[in-house]
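Before relying on records like the one below, remember that each one covers exactly one chain. Contacts with other chains, cofactors or solvent are not represented anywhere in the record.
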Amino acid sequence: MQSPKLQRAVGMIDNPRSHRVRAVAKLARRDARSETGLFLLEGPQAVAEALTFRPELLVELFATPTALERRPDIAQKAKDADIVVEFGTEQVLDNMADTVAPQGIVAVCRQFPAALKDILSAKPKLIAILEEVRDPGNAGTIIRAADAAGADAVILTGRSVDLYNPKVVRATTGSLFHIPVAIDLDLESVAEKTKAAGLQVIAADIKGADLLAARKAGALASPTAWLFGNEARGLSDEHYALADWVITVPIYGHAESMNLATAASVCLYESAFAQRSA
């Protein structure tokens, strides 16, 4: 038997061109997100993570009846959080979403960037700083990797991609709701305040020393803020000056280069291993 909340939501949204549907779809655009303070959440996995960890952020939740039948856990979590699930046709859900296949579940959430002072006051041991990381897939994957490695936070400078870009949100696969993420900050200020909080800054760049040298020196066991730069240009000389170490992930095979998100994952896990071993 459906909960009273779900029963009240049985009225089907069936017009894919309705104002309601267009208002949700507009959140794929940065100007709409900036104006409303909202963002788009697509797919059952991301919605389930939001309902589990930050249900107070959900403003609207839409699903096809079939999709909700496939995910009774989402229906139960929505009921527990007193959130109305509004039903729509598959075409309505497709029109709301940025992705081609939202799998019948879409939500609208409030943006919730973390404050740098709150991150640093919690005495973090591992942070990822993204400077001018423009590719949404890279940014989202690094947030996911930081979450997996047990990092305390991620910081996106103002020159990086918008955190609430749908492609970034999708690439985090729900980790966005697990780890604090600060945005729109100046790198020089972040580096200064991070060092004042007792963390070393390690810049990851192809021009740096071999990662093994830092490992052998025991540097990776210290509280660390890893700094990752632009996919094409990397970091500048000015950025190097902000760092205590500049390190590169060595390539032992014949690959021309390593994807930024892959290299960042290696760096974050190297610190996680070293800190836990210590």
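Residues 1-9 have pLDDT under 50 and may be disordered.
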